[in-house]
Design a protein that fits this description.
By secondary structure, the chain is an alpha+beta fold. It has a domain at 55-96 and 103-146: Nuclear Transport Factor 2, Chain: A. Helices cover 22% and strands 24% of the residues. The termini are far apart.
Length: 147
């Protein structure tokens, strides 16, 4: 039989061993406390301005959309015509000359359209039949004037 003096150290060692195997409580510091992360408000998107196109210019606006969808490989829904006007170009380049090319020097009636495509402004210069080109703003020339 075990003596009381032998039993006490065994119980004490068992209690200490069990306590040592227990998971200690997590230590917290001021750094560990969750700080709320500020949330950013969603960006405000400016609505596209309501653009009224004169009924007689609508066919040319549609042709400008066709030119942009083909040139930029976008859907027609991605194109918004901002402005279209009848103009006169100073030559057959339609106000969008390519470097090294020669153009007939004659007044060419046509149209100039400004459009928004996926957030970027684009220009389309056309002749009176609706044949035209997209024109980079840095090479675009101003027309002679309105028809």
């Amino acid at each position: 039989m075990l003596r009381k003096t032998t039993l006490f150290p065994i119980i004490l060692v068992t209690i200490l061993a069990v306590a040592a195997c227990a998971i200690p409580p997590a230590l917290t510091s001021s750094k560990d406390k969750a700080t709320p992360v500020p949330t950013l408000a969603p960006p405000t998107v400016k609505p596209m301005p309501e653009v009224k196109i004169a009924p007689e210019l609508q066919p040319m606006a549609d042709k400008a959309i066709d030119i942009l969808t083909k040139a930029l490989s976008v859907d027609p829904e991605d194109v918004t015509i901002l402005e279209i006007e009848a103009v006169q170009w100073s030559d057959a380049s339609l106000g969008c000359p390519e470097p090294g090319m020669m153009y007939a020097q004659m007044i060419t009636p046509g149209y100039r359209a400004r459009a928004m495509v996926n957030g970027q402004e684009q220009l389309v210069h056309m002749d009176q039949t609706g044949q035209g080109v997209t024109c980079a703003p840095d090479i675009a020339r101003a027309p002679l004037g309105n028809k």
